[in-house]
Specification:
Number of helices: 7
Helix content: 55-70%
Low-confidence stretches: none
Number of domains: 1
Distance between the termini: 22 Å
Oligomer: single chain
Order of helices and strands: HHHHHHH
Number of strands: 0
Largest sheet: none
């Protein structure tokens, strides 16, 4: 939704930077979410009661999430160094080593909200990937976060479905289905970076 491959260079750069920011924020939030839910005694009890009603894909997702977060994960590194905190040492090192032949760009606009500090995004992303091939690092990062999100969606949507059906059954709430016309596809949704009055 954030990056649609615009033909305009500056719009494309801004949207890609915005997309990377959201993905880094998502990675940190996934780590925070699991740590909060994993340590919460009430949630552990609910998790155990719901577990017997989950289908195989949801159980597999639950086990995968527990394994993923039982050791230091990419989500934890992102959270600790690039979203909720900053690794200034790593960022400073990238700036020191930056080739003088490569430009770092800043786009200034009449409205501050439309300014784009591309240099900052590029440095943070290079620092974040911490490898010689940033393209390969970006690909690995995106694939891993996609896998974590997929497991979260599979597991938590199944948990919510079990809990909701239990409440509906216990409370005798009648079920109704309705269709909402004109709902756009997720592929049609777009978050614009640049704004005007």
């Amino acid at each position: 939704m954030s990056s649609q491959g615009s033909e305009n260079k500056w719009e494309r750069v801004a949207e890609n930077s915005q997309a990377m920011y959201f993905i880094r924020l998502l990675a940190g939030t996934l780590f925070e979410s699991w740590k909060t839910l994993g340590k919460n005694q009430r949630f552990r009890g609910v998790r155990e009661r719901v577990k017997e009603h989950l289908d195989d894909p949801a159980l597999a997702a639950m086990n995968w999430i527990q394994g993923y977060f039982s050791k230091e994960s990419l989500c934890e590194k992102i959270r600790n160094n690039y979203t909720h905190h900053n690794n200034f040492g790593s960022i400073r090192e990238i700036i020191r080593q930056w080739p003088h032949t490569e430009n770092l760009e800043i786009v200034l606009a009449e409205h501050h909200g439309n300014c784009r500090y591309i240099a900052s995004d590029v440095i943070i992303n290079y620092s974040f990937f911490c490898i010689e091939d940033p393209q390969d690092g970006a690909s690995k990062f995106l694939n891993e976060i996609r896998e974590v999100v997929g497991a979260f969606v599979e597991y938590f949507s199944a948990c919510l479905s079990v809990l909701l059906n239990r409440v509906i059954h216990e409370e005798g709430i009648p079920k109704t289905e309705e269709s909402i016309p004109g709902v756009p596809s997720i592929h049609e949704c777009r978050l614009h970076y640049f704004m005007r009055d």
